[in-house]
Amino acid sequence: MMSPTLFWIFSTFMLLFGLITILHRNPVASALSLVVSFMALAALFVSLDAYFIGVIQVLVYAGAVMVLFLFIIMLLDLKAEQQRQINLGAILVGVAVVGAFIAQFVLVLRRHPAGERALQPLAAGLKEDAFHIGETLFTQYNLPLQVIGVLILVATIGVVVLSKRQLD
Predict the structure, then answer these.
(1) Residue 33's CB: how many other CB atoms inside 10 A?
(2) Nearest one of 37, 46, 50 to 133, comparing CA atoms
(3) How many CA atoms lie within 13 A of 44 on its CB side?
(4) Helix or strand or coil: residue 146?
(5) Domains of the chain (ranges plus CATH)?
(6) Crossing angle for the helix pair 4-23 and 27-47, nearest 10 degrees?
(7) pTM of the entire structure?
């Protein structure tokens, strides 16, 4: 079990670098900030004795997905992006969306007080954590998994098509 001090350090790193990811203008620096945020999240998973999820967080997200993001950023050549004017309407809509999210979050927390007590640990058995995660993922969450896969494929094809138009 992790000490509360380490929890707050890793949580602060995760939130701080997530905020830097959103606010930074340089896309490469933003992507690297996201890597640090993923690593802090992996440390939080390891602290909860979810070693498999922590390792997958590092391998899949901080490794493969971020390499894909950096490849797409370099393919688009975003370093030549021009300075944009501040759009007051977009800022107001963004603040309204954040406010709605916080209100929804508070409502969910008030209606489900089960978050105040710890969950029961998984029953120790002969099968590994990876088996339980895979079984849950491919039985209960098969459709969302497939939808996310198609969305990632469409996004990647869109980036390639957009970059191809710029080269012509």
Answers:
(1) 20
(2) 50
(3) 16
(4) helix
(5) 1-80 (1.20.120.1200)
(6) 160
(7) 0.59
3-state secondary structure of 168: coil
pLDDT in tens, 69-94: 777 777 776 555 556 677 888 889 98
The interaxial angle of helices 129-139 and 142-167, nearest 10 deg, is 80
Q: What is the pLDDT of residues 100-122, one digit of tens each?
A: 999 998 888 788 766 566 666 65
- The end-to-end CA distance of the chain, in Å, is 56
Instruction: Tell me how far apart the alpha carbons of residues 80 and 73 are, in angstroms, rounded to a whole number.
Output: 11
The span from the CA of 63 to the CA of 80, in Å, is 26
CA atoms of 100 and 153, how far apart (whole Å):
30
**Single-letter amino acid, residue 122:** L
What's the token pair of residue 133? 């995660």
The SS3 call for residue 132 is helix
